[in-house]
Write a structure and sequence with these properties.
This protein is an alpha+beta fold. The chain is 36% helix and 26% strand.
Length: 143
């Protein structure tokens, strides 16, 4: 998935950060208080996030998430944003142990339980284009 996103955005510009070290992933999990879901762990083992010049869309590095308090809450953290936190998406772990991805402006609405699904929508239409994140959010009732 990251390779496909990289190929799509290479002309506009994309920076893919090197994989997070296993110790960094473990330290991050200790800081947030729960283990990452398998797809998030696989993502950070492959790369420690990326930044696309188009829409200034960022899959945030683990260190940046923990560095800024606005990126974390009880059982959740913001893992992706655009335009320097103009909007963002987070992951939370429910009391039942289920993982949910949400838009930070409408945290009560679960978008998906899968990082792969989230990235598929970004790959299809970036943030604003048809088939992209905002188009998907509209179908979910997120203004």
């Amino acid at each position: 998935m990251v390779d496909a996103i990289t190929d799509k955005h290479c002309a506009e510009g994309i920076t893919v950060y090197p994989a997070a070290k296993p110790t960094a992933i473990l330290a991050f999990e200790a800081r947030i208080g729960f283990p990452l879901p398998d797809d998030f762990r696989a993502f950070y083992e492959y790369c420690n996030g990326f930044c696309c010049e188009e829409d200034w869309f960022i899959m945030t590095e683990l260190e940046e998430i923990t560095q800024f308090k606005h990126g974390m809450g009880d059982n959740c953290f913001i893992f992706s944003e655009y335009l320097t936190y103009c909007d963002g998406w987070g992951l939370r772990r429910t009391d039942a142990g289920q993982y949910e991805i949400f838009n930070m402006s409408y945290p009560e609405i679960t978008m998906t339980h899968s990082l792969v699904t989230f990235l598929e929508y970004f790959l299809a239409g970036n943030v604003f284009d048809p088939g992209g994140l905002y188009d998907w959010q509209e179908t979910l009732g997120i203004p």
